[in-house]
## 1
Amino acid sequence: MIRIAAFGDCHVGVDSCGRLAPHLEPVNEHADVLLIAGDLTKCGTKDEARILADEVQNVTIPIYAVLGNHDHHADEVDGVTRALGDGGIHVLDGSAEVVEIDGASLGIAGTKGFGGGFAGASGSEFGEPEMKAFMAHTKRIACRLERALASLSTDHRVALLHYAPIDATLVGERLEIYPFLGSYLLAEAIDVAGADLVLHGHAHGGTEHGSTPGGVPVRNVAQPVIGAAYKVYTLGP
Ligand SMILES: [Fe+2]
Ligand SMILES: [Fe+2]
């Protein structure tokens, strides 16, 4: 059995020193790998990323993350990624990694994702260049996610996102902002390539449980949703 600890949206700021570390300490006992579903920082600065890197120094299991929209805000993505990497947090961006756990292999395909909306209420690549660019960005990210998942021939596969692939895990958020919380294109990519579990964050007021139209379990692991520092999910017998 593979135990996956996950959370998103910890939003570490420069005033967050020492706040997360004590809550993460038990994770080494509870799980085999830790996945972070984006919005690691408040404003996306290198300084904030360094603070999170310090907070996870006592976590000894492998850590993988995707960035969220907040982690892009200061336009310091390379510096943020480097600072997290220096702290042992591997950032996935349309890419996949494999972890061996007790003789089983776990593949993790990670991407930030983006918005656009859901079936019957989605944007399209039509009209102004800005609208075309918005939807083209989502489409490109969904294609990279599908490729990353398809590249994995592991025993288990997890898709790690920041934005939501379905609307069921958004329930509780205002309907008007659904198009800014995720896109059905992400779920389509997951169902085409296949996965055993999807983790996302971003929707702080959403719902934990859902599944893609193809039946892949989806979990919204934003900290305000799970009401804890992390949640553990299991795969395999
Ligand atoms: Fe967030
Ligand atoms: Fe977010």
## 2
Amino acid sequence: MKCRHCQAPLNQPFVDLGSAPPSNAYLSEPDLHRPETHYPLRVLVCSECHLVQTEDYVTEDTVFDADYAYFSSTSRGWLAHAKAYCERMTERFDLGSESFVIEVASNDGYLLRNFVERGIPCLGIEPTASTASAAREVGVETLEAFFGTELAEKLSRERGKADLIAGNNVFAHVPDINDFTAGLAAALKPEGVITLEFPHVMRLVEFCQFDTIYHEHFSYLSLLTVERIFEKAGLRVFDVEELPTHGGSLRVYGCRQAAGHARTSAVETVLAEEHRRGMDTDGYYEGFQVRADGIKDGLLRFLLKAKQEGKSVAGYGAAAKGNTLLNYAGVRPDLLPFVCDAAAAKIGKFMPGSRIPILDPAVLETWRPDYLLILPWNIAEEVRTQNAHLTEQGTRFVIAVPELTIL
Ligand SMILES: [Zn+2]
């Protein structure tokens, strides 16, 4: 296999998580009587450009299909994040009724509905039918498609170019990152701005967030690598912010090479830190496997001990992260009988691979577990606050990453 960005041969392993079905391939009851396709989940790092990337097995339409069950609006914290983004971008880049905003992978309209409320023309691009239709219901015009150069050129002919293109948690999810980035350039006005948010691979390594690795997540990005990818597409990075989302993300601001946006000192600060840690060397990416194995073993020890002691454990949050962790650790319903999730699209389904049933969080009122394992650790505080009353009834909250912790 060759590097998705620079085409250099890929020889250096980063981590091997065995094999698993796509993380968002939730099963319905009849599916339990059929086999499931598992794909290897191996991640490599390019020794040339240091793009960390999954080995190619899964195509885009396998993982983002019509039944895609991830709805951004089910997380309250994420909704607040989207609202704050809209306010800041509107002010900083002086957006108004003459502007045009595009969001790539606009999901259920969680972000663009804030622009709609302000009377700023916008368009969402979203390949999954279920979320696109939810977006239309909240008044967000949505084009059901995958974004790339071809679509960007068609859009700029038919709809004009954009003042702002937002991409939250999509840049890491595209298999052809060069074509996607060239598309951003093609859809952008000469002085337009692109903002991309993605989990920072520096935090993934630092906190051993190996459960953020899944097939839909093709790239694990540093600013060093993003600069190279932008440059190839005629773009440049002019600002960057470090965000707490998804365990530590970057929001990168990009524009055309010739645009007037001045480069801020924040760009140099992040680049210097990445360089200081050696992210431009192969050595930085070694040793991750051993650390991931340690976390997996810690989770298994905890579940086995709870079982021996006759303590009950339930899971919370049927997110992709949980699927990676449970499948890698080989956890099945004998150790974790169910996972609760508030998303209507997931309730009554089963986790891919582990086949653990997903139930309405209301069951926690009658079936009070001794331990509630919060799988999406990035929203652990939100889950704890929402379920604070369970603590009074004796339930203790647990997270597995970066190490097994009883909260
Ligand atoms: Zn490369």
